[in-house]
Design brief:
By secondary structure, this protein is an alpha/beta fold. It folds into two domains: about 400 residues, Peroxisomal Thiolase, Chain A, domain 1; about 350 residues, Thiolase/Chalcone synthase (Peroxisomal Thiolase, Chain A, domain 1). Strands 15, 16, 19, 20, 21, 23, 24, 25, 26, 27 and 28 form an eleven-stranded mixed sheet that branches. The protein has a ten-stranded mixed sheet with strand order 5-4-6-7-1-8-14-13-9-10, sandwiched between helices. Strand 25, helix 25 and strand 26 form a beta-alpha-beta unit. The longest helix has 17 residues.
Amino acid sequence: MSDVRSQGAGVVIAAVGAITPHGASAEALWEGVRAGRVAIAPVRRLSMDHYQTTLGGEVAEAPRPGYAYAAPGGSRDFSIDFALAAAEEAMAGSGLRIGADIPAERWGVAYGTCHGGWRSAELALREVHEGRSPDWRRYTFVPPQAGAEALSAAFGLKGPVFSVNTACAASAHALAHALEVIRSGAADAMLVGGSDAFTESAFAGFSSLWSLSPQPAAPYSRDRSGLTLGEGSGMLVLLSRRVAERTGAPVVAEVLGYGLSADGHHPTAPHPEGEGAARAIRAALDSSGLVADDIRYVNGHGTGTQKNDSAESNAVRAALGAAAEKIALSSTKSMIGHLLGAAGAVEGIVTALALRDQVAPPTASFTGADPQCGLDPVAGTGRPMVLETALSNNFGFAGANATIAFARPGGRGAPPPAAGPDDVVVTGLGVITSAGEGPEALWEAYAAGRRQGVPENNLRVARVEFDRSVAGTPRERRRMDKVSQLAIASCRAALDAAGADRDAAAVAATGVVLGTAIGPMESGERFTVPVLREGVQEANPAVFTNTVYNGAAGHVAMALGTKGPTSTLTSGHAAGAAALSVAYDMLRAGRVERVLVPAVEAFSAATLAAYESIPLFGSASGRRYTLAEAGIALLLERRSSAERRGAPVHAVVLGHATASDACGIGRWDAAGEGVERAMRGALRAAGLRPRQVAAVWASAAGLAAADRPELAAVARVFGAGEVRVEAPKRVLGEPAGAGAQLAAVLAVGAWRAGGDLRPVLVNSSSLGGTHTSLVLSPVPVPVTE
C-alpha cells in the first residue's frame, strides 16, 4: 500500500475567519478578547421567557454570505450562514487561488458542530404542530454534513469533506482529523472550523440542567454560577508547510499536534479529577514533541460551571505537573459565551493570534480565585508574554476531550518520531440488523436474497429488534436511546469476537470512532417537541443529555470502559465510511493501537416524516428504497497489536479516499465524477490496479438518481462488466450511515463462503455529493499479477 505520511510534517494556519458576538471578523474577535470586553447581553432573536437566564453571546447582525445555498426566497439556516461568512474571510485572507495554486481535488473541508441545523428542525416541528407543511428543503439543513457540503460547494473544494459532532469539542476534533488528512498526503489544504447558532432546545436543555448563569459567565472564579451560551463560527485555512512555502501563503501559526480521549464517566459531568482531560493534554504534548515546560499559555475550556472549571484545573495540573503553576490559563468563553461546536475553532483562532501578537488573552468577569481552580486566569485584560507554543482545551458532553497544540512560526520543538509502518486489520465484527444478530445472520440473509423491511406510510423500513440486556441493566438503559443501546451491543460483540475484552488495560486504551447520519433524532424529538408545545418547563434533562450526536460513543465508553481517542463522524449516509477513514488514519499514525468503529442508526417518527417529505424518497423514485436500522461495529487494530495477542484477522484495510462533487446541499454530480475520483484515490492508496480487485460493494440502494452515477463511474474505472458489483442495500436496506460497515461484514462473509480471495472496494456516498471508498483485502499485502 502507498503511504506518504510524515508524522513530523509541518501543517500551518494560513488564514482565519470568524463571526462572533464581537463582530464579523477574526480581528474584531481578537481585539475584543485581548481587551477583555464582554460581548454577552440580553438575547434578542429568541424569546427568553422562562429560561434560567436572558443572556447570551449573540451575533448582532446575521451575515448574508455570497453563496446562495437556499432556493430563491426559501429558508436559510443561521449555523450555515455563520460558517459560510467566516469561511469567506478565511479563504480571502489566505490569498490562494483554487486551481491555480492548489488543485480543487487537493483541498478539503472538516466541519465541526454540536447542533448542526437543529434550529431548522425546530421551525419545521413547530409548523407540523401548527398543522402546516414545512418546506421539505428545511430538513436538508438539519444534518451536520449539510454545513460541510455547503462550504465545499461555495468554494469548489473537491477533496476530502466530512463533518464531526463531538458536542462542545466538535471543531477541535475537526482540526485534529484535518491535521491527519494533510499529514497522510490525502490533501494539501483543508478549510477547517465549526459553527453553531442559538436554538430553543439548547437554552431549554441547559436550563433543565441548571447550568446557565444569570450573569455573564465568570470562569475559574470562586463565585461562578454557570455558563453563558454563545453562537458564531470560526474557520481556519490549514496547509502543509511545503505548500505554504511553494505558494508564498501567509503563516499565522503552526498546528503541532493533538490529543483526544474519552472520560467514560458521565453523560454531562467531567471526571472530577480531570483524568480523561489530562490524558488528552499529555497526548497533545507527545504528538507535538513538546514537554510541560514548553507551555506558558493554555486557552482553557473554562465554561464557568463549578464542576467543569475545577476538573479542568485538576487536569492541567495532572498533565503538566509543577509547570502548571507557571502557566496562564484563561477562558475566551467569559467574553463571547460558549459557542458549543464552534468553540474549538474560535478558541483555536484566539490561541493562534495570541502567539502571533505575543499576548496571553484574559479571563473577563473574574471575581477572585477559587481554591479548587487556583491557576493564573490572566484576569481583566491581555498580558504581554513571550509565547513559543500554546495549548487549547475543549471538553464536550459525553466525555469527549480534545487538546490542540499550536506554535508561532518556527517556535516548535523537535518533531516527534514517525510511527513505524503497520497494517490496519479488522479483528472483530459486531452486527445487529433486521436480519438478526451476528455476521452469519447478515450473510445468510443477503446470500438468500431475503429482502428486509415492511411498508410504513409511504416508505419501506427495516426495524431492528435485539436483546437489549447486553446494553446494560434496566436502570442504565432507561437513560439511553436506541442508537446508544445499538452502539454498546455491537461494540461489545466486536470486542468479544476479537477476544479483546479480556485485558482491562487494553480495553481502557481502546478508542471509539462512531459514524451516524441520523444520530440522536429520537432523543431530539422526545426533548424538543414537548418544549415547543408546552414550554421550557417540559424540558427533560435525562433526555437532553442524549441529544448530542456523540452521546452513543460516550455510552460505549461508560459501559465498556473504552477511554482512548474518541470521535463521532456525521457525514450523512457516508458517516460510517468517514469513521473508518478517521480511525485508519489515527492507527497508521500510531495515535492508538485499537479502535472500535461502530455505525448506528434508528428512525424516529419525525425522522421518517422528514424522509417522506423529500421528493427523492417519498415519491415514485423511492419505491425500491428501504431505510434500515442497524448497529454494526468493526474492531480495527494495528497488525502488531493483533499479532501480540493472537487475534483473528478478518480483513486488512489497504487504503481509502474521499472526494466531493462540490454541488451543494443534497446534490451530487450526475456523471459520478466524485465517485470515480474516490475509487481511483482508494486504489492508489492501496497500491492496486483496477484489475486486481474482485468486487465493488456499491453504495447503490435503489434510488436511480444516485445509483446511476455510481454505476457509470464503476464502469469507467474497471471497465464495463469487468468487475463484480454487489448492491447489498437493495436487499437488506439502506442503513444510512452504516453502509460501509454493512459492506465490510458482507465482504468477509463472501470470502468465508469460498468467494474470490482478492481485494474488494467498498463505496459509500452521503447523498450530498461526498463519496468515500475503502479497499479491503483478506490478505496482508496487495495481490500481485
